[in-house]
Design brief:
With about 500 residues, this protein is mainly α. The chain has helices at about 1-30, 35-50, 55-70, 75-110, 115-145, 150-175, 180-205, 210-215, 220-245, 250-285, 290-325, 340-350, 355-360, 365-390, 390-420, 425-445, 455-480, 480-490. The protein has 18 helices and no strands. It is globular, with a radius of gyration of 22 Å.
Length: about 500
C-alpha cells in the first residue's frame, strides 16, 4: 500500500502543479510579453538543470541508504546522512558562487530588452532558492525517498507550488515588476524549509550527525554520479541557452511553450517513477532474480506510458499551442514538426531510465559518467552546427541524435553485462514503440486536428488518449505477454 500511496499522492500533486503551470506562462506572456517569458523560462531551465549538479550526491545517498533501512540499522542511516550532509554543504558553496557569477554575467550575454539590473535580480533570487534547498532540505529528501515516503515530499511540494503560483498569478495580473515575483519565489523556499524541519524533528528525532563518520565513510561512486549529473546539466540546458544566445529570448519563448507541454508530462511520470523507485533499490538489495522481475515490470510500464503520452502530444500539441498563444502576435509559435521532435526526446530519455538506475545500484556509475560526458559534448557540437541552418529543428534534432548513443549503451549494459541476458526484450519494445509513435505523428502532420476551444480540446484529448492507449496496450501484450500479466496483476492488487 505504501507504493500505491506514494504513486497516487505524487500523481495528484503533479496534476495540480501542471494545471497551474499551464495557467501561469499564459499570464506571463500576455502581461509581460514573450521577451520576459522567454527570459524567466530560460533562467528556470538553467537553474533547474544546474540543480542536478547535486543529484550525484542524492543518488549515491539513496543507494547507500537502502541497505541500512532494510536492516533497520539506525546507526548506519545516521552515518550515511552525516556524510551526505557534508557533501551537500560543500556543493552549496560552489553553487552559490555559480549563482553570483551568472547574476553578473547573464545580463550581458542574453539577448533581451530587460534592463541589466532586472536580469541580475531575477537571476540572483532564482539561484538563492536553490542554495537554501541544497544547504538544508535535500539531505532529508533522500532519506524520505529511500524509505518510500514520497507522499511526504509530494505534499510539501504541492504546498510550495500553490504558494509560488499564487504569488506569480496575483503579481503578474497586477503587472508588478518581475523582480518582486522572483523574490516571492525565494520566500516560499524558506517556508518549505521550515515545514521540512518541523516534520524531520517530529518523526526522526533519533537522527544524530556524526562528524567522525564524515572522515571514515565515503558515498559509493559519488564522484561518478556528480560527473554524470554535470554532463546531464550541460546536455539538458544546451537547447534554450543556445537559442537565447544565438537567436533571441523571444525564440526561446517559442521553445519554452512546447517544452512546457512535454516537460509537464515528464514531471507527471517522474512523480510516479520516483515514488516507486525504492522498490527497485530494495529488490536489488535482496536478490537479483527478484530484481529482474521488478525491472521488467518497470520497463514495460514506463516505456508504454511514455509512448502513449507522447503519441497523444504529437496529435494535440499544435492545436493546444494555437489556443494557448491566441492573441500573441510578437513571434510565430507554430512549428508543425516540433511536437514530433520533442516527443522523440522524451521517449529516448525515458526508455533508458530503468537501465540507467540499474547501472547506478549495480556499481557501474563510473563508466556511465564517461558516456554522459560524450553525450553532452555531442549535443553541444551538433547544436552549434545544426542551429544556424535549421533553427529550432536543428536544436531538437541534435538532442535526438545525442540521446540514441547513451540509450544503446545502457540497454546493452543493463541486460547483457548486469542481468546476464539478451537485449531483445528491451530492444523490441524500444523499436516497436518508436515505430508506432512515428506513424501516429505522421498522421498528425498530414491530417492535423482543428480544435476551436479548450472545451473541445479536452473532448478530443480524452478520445485521443483512449484510442492511443488501446493501441499500445495491445502492443505491450504482444511484445511481452509474461511481464504484462504480472504487471496487470500487481496493479490490480496490492503494490508492495
Amino acid at each position: 500500500m505504501g507504493a500505491k500511496r506514494n504513486a497516487v499522492t505524487g500523481l495528484i500533486t503533479q496534476l495540480i502543479i501542471i494545471a497551474l503551470g499551464l495557467i501561469v506562462p499564459r499570464i506571463m506572456i500576455t502581461n509581460y510579453g514573450s521577451d520576459t517569458n522567454g527570459l524567466t523560462n530560460t533562467l528556470t531551465q538553467i537553474f533547474s538543470y544546474i540543480a542536478l549538479f547535486e543529484a550525484g550526491i542524492g543518488q549515491s545517498t539513496r543507494n547507500a541508504l537502502y541497505k541500512p533501512i532494510t536492516e533497520n540499522d539506525r546507526d548506519g542511516v545516521c552515518k550515511i546522512l552525516s556524510v551526505s550532509r557534508k557533501y551537500y554543504w560543500k556543493i552549496t558553496k560552489y553553487y552559490a558562487a555559480i549563482v553570483v557569477a551568472m547574476a553578473l554575467l547573464l545580463p550581458f550575454i542574453l539577448k533581451t530588452n530587460l534592463s541589466a539590473k532586472t536580469v541580475f535580480a531575477v537571476v540572483f533570487f532564482e539561484g538563492m532558492s536553490g542554495v537554501v534547498r541544497f544547504m538544508f532540505t535535500e539531505n532529508w529528501m533522500q532519506l524520505l525517498t529511500a524509505e518510500g515516503k514520497g507522499y511526504v515530499q509530494a505534499n510539501i511540494t504541492l504546498m510550495g507550488c500553490l504558494l509560488t503560483y499564487g504569488i506569480k498569478i496575483v503579481l503578474a495580473c497586477m503587472k508588478i515588476n518581475i523582480v518582486a515575483i522572483q523574490f516571492g519565489f525565494f520566500c516560499v523556499s524558506l517556508i518549505r524549509l521550515a515545514v521540512y524541519k518541523i516534520y524531520i524533528d517530529k518523526n526522526y528525532s533519533w537522527i544524530k550527525y556524526d562528524i567522525k563518520a564524515c572522515d571514515e565513510t565515503e558515498l559509493p561512486d559519488k564522484n561518478a554520479y556528480v560527473l554524470t549529473e554535470v554532463a546531464w546539466t550541460v546536455f539538458s540546458s544546451t537547447d534554450m541557452i543556445l537559442l537565447s544566445v544565438m537567436f533571441s529570448t523571444a525564440l526561446s519563448s517559442v521553445y519554452s511553450v512546447y517544452n512546457m507541454i512535454y516537460s509537464n508530462i515528464s514531471v507527471l511520470m517522474s512523480a510516479i517513477y520516483t515514488s516507486l523507485l525504492y522498490l527497485l533499490g530494495q529488490a536489488y538489495s535482496e536478490n537479483i532474480k527478484k530484481y529482474e522481475t521488478v525491472h521488467d515490470e518497470f520497463e514495460l510500464l514506463f516505456m508504454t506510458a511514455v509512448a502513449v503520452l507522447m503519441s497523444c502530444c504529437s496529435l494535440l500539441a499544435i492545436p493546444f499551442v494555437q489556443l494557448y498563444t491566441k492573441g500573441v502576435t510578437d513571434v510565430n509559435y507554430i512549428y508543425i514538426f516540433l511536437p514530433t521532435m520533442f516527443g522523440l526526446i522524451q521517449i529516448l530519455s525515458w526508455d533508458r531510465y530503468v537501465t540507467g538506475n540499474l547501472s547506478g545500484i549495480a556499481g557501474h556509475a563510473k563508466m556511465v559518467s564517461k558516456i554522459s560526458v560524450i553525450e553532452a559534448a555531442s549535443n553541444i557540437v551538433l547544436s552549434v552546427l545544426l542551429a544556424p541552418r535549421m533553427g529550432l529543428y536543428g536544436i531538437t534534432l541534435a538532442t535526438v541524435i545525442s540521446l540514441v548513443f547513451k540509450l544503446a549503451y545502457l540497454t546493452y549494459l543493463g541486460n547483457v553485462v548486469i542481468l546476464k541476458r539478451g537485449i531483445w526484450s528491451s530492444l523490441s519494445k524500444i523499436l516497436c514503440y518508436l515505430g508506432t509513435y512515428l506513424v501516429i505523428s505522421f498522421i498528425g502532420i498530414i491530417k492535423p486536428l482543428k480544435i476551436s476551444s479548450f472545451a473541445r480540446f479536452i473532448l478530443y484529448g480524452f478520445i485521443t488518449l483512449t484510442l492511443v492507449m488501446v493501441v499500445f496496450i495491445i502492443l505491450a501484450y504482444i511484445i511481452d505477454r509474461k511481464t504484462f500479466k504480472i504487471l496487470a496483476k500487481r496493479i490490480g492488487g496490492k503494490m508492495h
